Structures are given as C-alpha cells and as structure tokens.
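Appendix B. Chain record.
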Amino acid sequence: MTSWQNDVPRIGTALKTLEQKSVGERPAATEVREAMDEFLSAFDAFKAANDERLDQIERKMGADVVTEDKVERINRALDRQMKTVDELALAMARPEIGGEMPTRLDPARREHKRAFDLYVRKGDAPDLRALEAKALSAQSDPDGGYLVPSETERLIDRIVSEASPIRAIAGVRQIGAASYKKPFTTSGPQSGWVGESETRTETEAPKLSELEFPAMELYAMPAATSTMLDDAAVNIDQWLAEEVQTVFAEQEGAAFVNGDGVKKPRGFLSYDAVANADWSWGKLGYLVTGNAGAFPVSNAADTLIDMIYAVKAGYRANGRFVMNRSTQSAIRKFKDTDGNYLWQPGLSAGAAPTLLNYPVTEAEDMPSIGTDAMALAFGDFRRGYLIVDRLGVRVLRDPYSAKPYVLFYTTKRVGGGVQNFEAIKLLKFGTA
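Structure tokens predicted for this chain:
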C-alpha cells in the first residue's frame, strides 16, 4: 500500500473522534493543534493521491476509476476535517460562560446591565422601563422589547462576525437611523494640463448620486428554562449572544450573498452582472471559463489569474476569493506548471487557506459549479460590500407561549449591499 492509502484509516478515525466531541465546549489548545495536524496530514495524503491520478492521466490518457474514487474520498475527508478545525478554532475563540459583572462600567451602564439582568432572569421590568424612559429611548417599549446593554450588543456582534463569513470580510458601519445613504460621484470635476500663462476654461461641476442601504429587521427566539435563569453562575450576556449567533449568522450569510433587498439586505449576486469588457457602474463584471458548467479542460489556473487581474491594482492588494466548499474542493486539485498546488491550507487553526497567495473565504451560500453559475467571486470585499448595523439589539421576554420554557424574542436591524462595483469580480461557468 502507498503512504496515502495508509493515511486514510487514520484520517477517518481522527474525524470520528473529533465529530464525537461537542464544539459547544471550549476545546483545549492541544486539541486544536491535534486537529490542525490531522488536517495537514490529510492534505499531504490528498496531494499524494492526486499526483498519482495526474500521473495516470499522462501515461494512460485517463485515470483509473479506483484512483479517481480514492482521490474523491480523501478530498471529502479533507473537507470534513477542515470544517472540524474551523469549528474548534471558533469555539476556542469564544470566552467562557460565567463570570462576574464587570466592575469598570460607569454607574449608568452598570445600572442598565443590572436592570436588564433582572428583567431576563425574573421578568421584572419597572427598573429597565424607568431607565429607558429616562434616556428618552424611542427604540424600545414594553411591547417591542428592551434594548440590551451595550456590552451585550458588542458581544453579539463579535460572535456573529466570527461565524458569518461575509460579515467577517465586508465593510461594516453602525448607524442610528432607518437607513444609510452614501453619495458617490458619477462624473468627476474636469481637469487637464495647461501652460503657465494660458487661459483656463471653466470646468463643469461634479455630478453626484447616492446609494441607500436600509436596515431590515432580523430576529431569533432562543429558549431557556427557569432553572437556568435562576442559576447565578450563568452569564446571561454570553448565553444570549451564543444562542442567537447561529440564527443570525445563517440568515445574514444567505442575505449578503443572494438577498433580493426585500425585507432583507441585498446580496452581491443579486445585482446585474455583465461581461467585464462591458462593465459600467451599478453592475458587477464577470469573466467566463469558456466551458459550460466547468473550468477549462486545460490551463484552468489561467482563468483564476485572469480573474485576479480583472480587478484594479488598488483593490487587488486586499483581494480574496469567495466560494463554497464544493468549488474549493474542485480547485484544490489544480497545480501550476512547476507542479505546485495552487490551493494551500492555512498554517494555523482558524487561518484562511490561500489560492494563488490570496486568502479564501468559504461561504456555503455561494452557488456550486454548474452551467452559467456565478460560483466564484474575487475582490476587495471590505471596500466593495457594505453592511450597516442599526444600533440597538432588543429583547422581549415571553414566559407564556412555550411553558415551561421562557422565550426571548431578540431582534436587530441589518442592511447591506454593494458600495463599490469596481472592487468585486465574478467568474461565470459558461461560454458567454
């Protein structure tokens, strides 16, 4: 048996062991390192198997069915191991549940935190209502819920940012109004070169337009038992943030990629896309693979290089690829003319893999490779895509609808859309 075949049982055993452990618990640093070591070993096994497949193609004009099957099996195992490492790294980054109330808060914030904690645990709202009335808050009321303390809001935002792939790479702006308007120049002021004594002609004023990003309401409804709420050791802020993170991250992730802008943010794939040669403001430019539903048969890496250089140099410096796991699995097999793999794993747990030395963000809401699918994006997403968060996360306590559980109707307002149409390019798996 070859070395990569010997690695397969060990990789499978490691995967089963890791999957049996709860990622909801904070893993030890050694566990994360071991998972990363298994991932790197799996990648070495994948490269050995794929090299054998490519060698068979060169010698026999085609790979053995058995070899193809083995490569795909190891590739799928590598995907699962990569997901396990990501989950363990995310769990490791979370602070532990529990702990005392911060003592460095100013008196007003400490009072708000104490009143909110009393409301969540016991349903006592008079103190919280009085504080918000005193602050002239127009964002909450007894029917719509109460604003969480600012520390809790930041904790929710931080945890969701770690779990939401597009939020982690996009530009984020906090607003206090219902929408955010961003002006941009459609035609700049006229300019030119003149001699020292030549007459200067009057120039036209720049023409402005604006983009608007309304904030839409996103909600989650975690449940708790009375026993848990009575337990003073449970940090309510951390519990609430972790309970809503999955729902918020999944809903945001889908909207930031494919959202239609109706009661949700507008995703970057929902904008009109045109061939890059015909690009104009308000549309995203795309390149084609020249092969319907697939990469080119030969020199597939050239398509990726063309995509990188379709983005202007000012955006290319901070560029990154965005794709889903199945697309990444296909690209993982590509090699350059020197036999080096174009896709390389991150060197530490939580570090992004790279493709042609640019980081890769895995977003499962991106379409898979298919005929005319826009399955790959590249660009500077921090400058290209904007997420707006309206300040204030609200919570409404409901002890009646699902007795004996207490529900917490939690809402936040989020918007998003493309703010710079030059900064992002797409790859279309088609011929035109």
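Further analysis of this model is presented in Appendix C.
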